[in-house]
Design a protein that fits this description.
The chain has a domain at 2-127. It is rod-shaped and about 125 Å long. The chain is built from 5 helices and 11 strands. The strands form 4 sheets. A 3-stranded antiparallel β-sheet has the order 1-2-5. Helix 2 (57-67) crosses helix 3 (71-92). It has 204 residues and is α+β, with helices and mostly antiparallel strands.
Length: 204
């Protein structure tokens, strides 16, 4: 019965046993291992829930077809297997469910399951190296316009017009002269005589 139920869980991802619980096959997605710079492959594990122990009708129908028996006989087989499994757990403390896990009771008497190494792990981890493409052209949105990266690079690195240093020097000198003239008139006071030569000429 264990091999038949293992085949069923591979096809339908879960089954429930009366008085035991539900065993579910779950696929965990790939994960990024930042420390080792690798993508860990997806993996499978089994989840056990003792609170849900009502078998589905699809299990009975599938089992009847698989074993070529009546549905009522499939129901009786599932119930007998579950009862025998439950009694074995109570007597031997733990029971190996082939390829799935070890069923046992915890300190409170509840049935739990310890997963076995999963033979469904067939993928390997892969390196997660960052790909840097220099000068790779792409499109970016600037306001309401789409521009290529080459256009934006040319726009941002466009050379400015060369500075006219001669004009700057002339402006600087003009400012200095203006300041000197202003200082002179503020010191001498502005009069008509302050701008002329004050030397007296004596006639012989």
């Amino acid at each position: 019965m264990q091999s038949i139920l293992y085949k069923y869980i591979l096809l339908h991802q879960q089954f429930s046993l009366p008085g035991i619980g539900t065993i579910k096959l779950q696929r965990q997605p790939a994960q990024l291992d930042i420390a080792n710079k690798r993508f860990l492959a997806p993996f499978y594990n089994y989840n056990f829930d003792a609170s849900k122990d009502a078998p589905s009708e699809s299990l009975f129908n599938w089992l009847a077809q698989e074993m070529n028996i009546e549905i009522w006989d499939a129901v009786k087989k599932i119930n007998a297997f579950s009862l025998n499994l439950k009694n074995t757990i109570s007597q031997e403390e733990k029971v190996l469910f082939d390829k799935i896990g070890i069923l046992k009771r915890d300190e409170k008497g509840a049935i739990t399951m310890e997963n076995l190494p999963n033979e469904l792990q067939t993928d390997f981890s892969v390196a997660a190296n960052k790909v840097i493409r220099l000068k790779e052209e792409h499109t970016i949105r600037v306001g309401e316009t789409e521009r290529s990266s080459i256009e934006m690079e040319a726009f941002l690195t466009k050379k400015q017009n060369p500075v006219d240093y001669v004009l700057r020097i002339a402006i600087s000198l003009s400012i200095v002269c203006f300041l000197i003239v202003g200082w002179y008139f503020s010191d001498k006071k502005f009069t008509t005589t302050s701008i002329g030569n004050q030397t007296k000429i004596r006639l012989k």
